[in-house]
Design goal:
heterotrimer; A alpha+beta; B alpha+beta; C alpha/beta; B: alpha+beta; Glutaredoxin; 2 domains; 4 strands; C: Ubiquitin-like (UB roll); Rossmann fold
Amino acid sequence: MKNGMNLIKTVFFSEILKGLYLTFKHLLAQRVITEQYPREKRVLPDGYRGVIVHLRYDDNTEKCVGCALCEAACPSHCITVESAEREDIPQKRYAKRYILDVTKCVFCGFCVQACPVDALASSKEYEMATTDKRDLIMDKEAMLKLGDQYFPVRAKRPKHSQDRYDFFKTMKQTEFPTVKKGAA
Amino acid sequence: MRLKVLSDKAKEAIEVQFPSYPDKRSVLLPALRIAQEEIGYLSESAMIDVADLLGLTPVQVYEVATFYSQYNLKPVGKYLIQVCKTLSCALVGAGSIVTYLQEKLGIRTGETTSDGLFTLKLVECLAACGSAPMMQINDRYYEQLTPEKMDRILEDLKRDGKSPLATGPFMLPVMGERS
Amino acid sequence: MNKMIKLKINDLEVEVEDGTLLIEAAKKAGVEIPHFCYHPKLKPDANCRMCIVEIEKARKLQTSCSTPVTEGMVVKTNSPEVKEAQFGVMEFLLGNHPLDCPECDQGGECQLQDFAHENSPMTSRFVEEKRVFEKEYFGPLIEKEMNRCVSCLRCVRYCDEVVGSNALGSMQRGNMHEIGAFAHQELECEYCGGCIQICPVGALTSRLSMYDYRTWQLKKTETICNYCGDGCLLTLEGVKDDITRVSSEMGAGRNGGDLCARGFFGYGMINHAERLSRPTVRTKGRDLQVTWDWAADKTASGLNEIKAKYGPQAIGGVISAHCTNEEIYLFQKLMRQTIGTSHIDSSARLGHINAVSGLVKAFGTTRMVRYEDILQADVLLVFAGELTESNPITAIKVKEAVRQNKAKLIAVDSYSAGRETYISHLPNLATHHLEIRPGTEGTAILGLLKAVAEGSHQTSLSQTARDKFKESLSSVSYDNIEAVTGISEKTFREMGTLYAGAQRGVLIFGRAITRCEEGYQNVLKLADLAIAAGQAGQPGKGLLSLTKENNEYGAVEMGGASEYLPGLQPVGAEQKGHTLVEMIDAAARGEIKALYLVGENPFRSLPQKKVEEALSNLELLICQDLFPSEVSALAHIILPAASYAEKSGHFTNLEGEVQKVRKAIEPVGNSKPDWEIFSLLERKLEAELGDPSQSQKLEAPSVDVVWREIVTTLPAAWPNLSEEKIVAKMTAYIENGLRSYVVPERAREKEEGVFDLSMSQVLFHAGRMSTYAPGLTTLLEKAVVLIHPDDAEDLEIQEGEEIELKAGGNGSGVTVPVKFSKKLSVGSLLFPEHFGLEMQALLPLTVDPITGVPYGDRGRVTLAKVSAPVS
């Protein structure tokens, strides 16, 4: 009996038909599922990790403080940070040079997580195809530009601590005139 | 060794103290007091002079001078108001006393009024916790302060140079003196 | 050996010496107790309260950094009670600490970070505002960020206890406590960088490397500093091939982790933009930048040509004592063996050779005193007033001996004991200071020697030797000595008794002896003094010669001197080549046709006109150096050498300790380490001499091979003699060699308006090299002449004003700005030798008749005020 059923199945290619069921279903349903890229673009999920970009505060200043934690976190060593002292605000750190080598980047997003000031973000930019590989080595300006494009809503800059400084200055028991040695 | 601002008299007064202490550095507190009495406050040159006399570096003198609120590093007015900011006084409103004085005199703590009369300063406990809040003006205590009382004190001082509300100076409280 | 004490820490049995602090005992048991204010170098202060532990039967928790161990102590460092207390301390510390770890240069090696991860409650109950201090530049090289400070006072205590410059203070109190300099002024101190190194947090950081690195990016290499003879262990830390920071591990190396301004801030010359970077051949006035192969060919053929034409003795070579032992050995081998000349010298000729010749003659060795001996000495006799400036780490050891171990310090020099700002000054520290007139060191030694020889102290010296000393001093009278030096007989007698009566007496002498007139004779007199006082030939006693350059000991021991072969084997009198001065003379006469100058610039030590004349006379001048100089301007071939950070080898410091130098970065530009250049040249020369197999060897042998050759072929390279041998040599020396001493007749009169000018080292520079380090030039950028304020007042000169110095009232003068310094004696001027070649022209040059050392550091000048420029 069992053998008979098997014979019938073999003769009528029932397994093949079963396998091709899905194919025929889509063939006959007439629904196009190929995306017509680049004429139409897919809506990306929220957690999508595209090219890493730099963000700014609402007053147009960049968030990055040049701490190089992203460089330390990067598993593929694609980030290079050279930091320096800011000329306009002495003793403040900033990234003088920030290089992201997209050719090496694995889009893991570790750098975004490592950033202590939320200066980095994963954008949804994925169209990085180029004929010149050098285009894929991004500097800070390029990353800021992309960041502006993808994150138009900016965070507020934390208030400068001048008020607090004034407050504690009055607490000081004594203080000298601020004339430093050498000045008149 | 030539001194910058201290007179020979002050120098002598400091040097007289040397035998009373185990080493020269120990004379620092009296030396600073003598210097302050002479000039009215401790200027940078005065501190350098004291350092030279005691064989210290200027910064070793400066450390001590900034630690104690009894030393003034800036010229002070005729009346030096020292308001206690330590716990007992703070609990019963030393803060509001200071704010009141600041507003009334138009100065912040550590500053002197433009007429050179009053200097306002916050100090640590002056050992009159029983009658907090309190302040010390020059050598006299003024206790259990209220805004009205302070108005009177300041007016008295401006007018007569002294105020009947003052108590002290005293080493030990005299029983039954205060009502 | 102290009594051993057993105690229990966290149920672990541990046995330590009596007097050990609990925190150290715990460390020994492998238990780390969190701490901030405790530091092994400093006395316990117990101000941070972080290291509290529970001790059984003690009523309260105790600070383990200030509690000595006792027998049977039972200690718990991790009980809930302890943890709670530590959490409390941590909460207070973090209450005001800003959250700027990502920006902070200390981030990653911060003790607060580490301990906060282990010992903090992770949340804070403080809702109040954090205290905020204004950021301050704390002087040109140090950044101060008081918000990060945990008030452990390590920096202040280090400055007071170790360095002794007392420049830092702790101001205000309570919440507003801060570290600072006097009256919020800029710091004006020794800039040893110790406060930066010892700070557990990022409150004090170096401005020089601010934000240039994160600690985890640094590649660290332990090597030896190349500025002075102290031989400090440095850790060069760099990102890629750029040295960004220097540190020294606590307790490591001969320096024990202490550094000076030159070591800590002087690394900038390594990556300096002006470094010579390509081999250059100059033909017909044109500079051709060539490959190493070509340059070596050119050099070899040039040398061979001259050798063929005039013979090997027409070639001379001088090497700098900044080079490693291997390089000096290879150089002298190249000159003596491959080329065949005997004219070889090194910059040890400029003074150190006096000490070596003198000490070897008297004791057979130069290795007598080590730093440990200084620390254990009870009397130190120091003939180096500028010890802090010339050898800062030796100075730290002397300070420790005097302050901690209560040694007596007799300082003999021509400085005054005035206190100058915050730079420690030896005469200030001295328990006995003999301020002698400049240039009368020799007479002062005689004064001491006479006191010692005629004194009644007990020594191991035989009666005959004693009589010999007395006899040789018979013509010396104290009247003369006093007239010359200005020190009374009584003082000499007291000091003589003190030195001779010492249990362990150490004699230290520096530049004032070795680099000034009568240098060789004075070294011998010092040797006599030590022998007569019985302060030599026994453990812990002896003489120590300070050196200016880092490898002067090595330079002489490796044969970098015309009178010594490697291993201090003397050269026969007839084979002895020219010394540096003689070479320049011979070149001027036209006898020497080619000179090979390795890092040595005779313009800096000899009269420029003569040197220029001599060098232009040469047919071939090879200059091998780091930076362009007067020599490279005249040279026919310029070979760029690598600095100490770019090569391996060994340096010998002033104690005679041979220490390893390690390569930290690749040679800058196209430069090569000196030893590589020498072996390249050697192969080229031998190939030209018909040994073609040599040219096949393209690879230079590794430097270790050279070192092995030195160690195996020169067993006597380091004459570290046993006490018996030293005593034997000493006795022999006394028996054949005591001369009769004479005091120079004239007592020099003080002339009105004539000043004693001396060239000397300053703390912030060493030779020419340090003037290329940006950190050090920030501290002292250009030449200033130091003058005592009293003199300036008499002449009505203000600080910063320019004065003109003239020698003997004729000739052209030199104009320099003045700076006041109370440490000088009245009537003397001091000029830093690192700047301004013109100043040398004012000073007369004499040459030592025996050792050939040129003396040109001292002279007399008149001084005139330059009319003030309109500003």
